[in-house]
Amino acid sequence: MLKITDIHARKILNSRGEWTIEVRVELENEYRGTISMPHGVSAGSFEAHSVDAEQAVTKINNDIRGVLKGFDGEMYEELDAVLIDLDGTSQKSNLGSNSILGVSLACAKAVSRARKIAFWKYLRELYGIAVPDGHNMRLMMNFIEGGVHAGSDLGFQEYLVIPKGKNIEDSITKGTRLYNSLKKYLLEHVGRNSINVGDEGGFALQTSDNKEPFSVINKVADNEGMLAEIEMGVDVAANNVNMDVRELTSIYKEITDEFSVTYIEDPFSEDDFTNFSALTKKVGERVMIAGDDLTTTNPVRMDVAHRVMSINAIIIKPDQIGSLSEALRAVHMARGWNWQVIASHRGGETNDDFIVDFAYAIGADGIKIGGPARGERIAKYNRLLEISK
Questions:
Q1: Residue 379, Cβ neighbours under 10 Å: how many?
Q2: CA distance 140 to 346
Q3: Tell me: the pLDDT tens digits for 320-340?
Q4: Rounded CA gap, 7 and 369, in Å?
Q5: pTM, whole model, 2 decimals?
Q6: Is the N end or the C end of the chain the one with fewer CB atoms within 10 Å?
Q7: 271 in the Ramachandran plot: left (φ > 0), alpha (ψ -120 to 50) or beta?
Q8: CATH of domain 4-116
Q9: What was the pLDDT predicted at 160?
């Protein structure tokens, strides 16, 4: 037994200069775990609710601390159940998903330190499924940004490069080489404003043509002799796109025919299970159609998506559901349906790298941590390299 002796939260700033929280859980013998919470900029309506940082700090330092002091930190599912029951709402709007998940993860990290094992190894024990040796997680790198993540006229939110690396280090090497070549190309051919970066480290290309970023990336990859070494993807975030289904579907046909696009995330709005299903039926043999705002790491939404065959891949964001145990259960559900699983960061991030440990623990098929720029994204790239060694 590893009893919780103290829980403390404080306000810190995230990558957008907004308040978020850092949570520390201390176990007996002074083993500590600290986690800082991200915040979604583009958030689905069905995500668990976070509360403002001031309120979260008060809830943790008063309500949660009082209930969990003396609790066995190794009983992670029971701990989450206590917090969910204490919250008492369907979307965690009382305590907040940020408060519950912050405590849940910080306690798990403290236990991993008490057990003297890496955080990802402890999370894998909790996940309970072996990951094959040599499993190669795909790296989905944000190269160009639009939507609510950048001050450009692009409607689509993220244009992704997926290097065909033999391992994580090889993928990062190939991806950063192409990223820097793209930066040089934009500077020389488009202008200095085009190399400004958005919330997640992708370049804020000033264009309103949603197909142009694919053409630009493709051209640069061709110039570098790297066309055979990459695939491309897109996070449309269609909730924020002012286009009808016919227009969107036409673009998806064009980009999957013309470019090596093998991944499309949130191609339609969050309630449009039917058109998700039609697109998956049409191109799902060769393209991952991923739900994010559609599914929000929520078992109820996931079950609907499964029953109507809307997707073949899913974004998993622990803060969307709001506890470690629920996030792991969501992964188990997705695996049971043979969906590809992609672990993802958020638009408002901190230097915390827990999402990388989580991705390794579950043997994620892919991971999204932004472009190789901005300190809060680089922290995650470096954690990837650290674990891979």
A1: 17
A2: 14
A3: 999 999 999 999 999 999 999
A4: 28
A5: 0.97
A6: C
A7: alpha
A8: 3.30.390.10
A9: 98
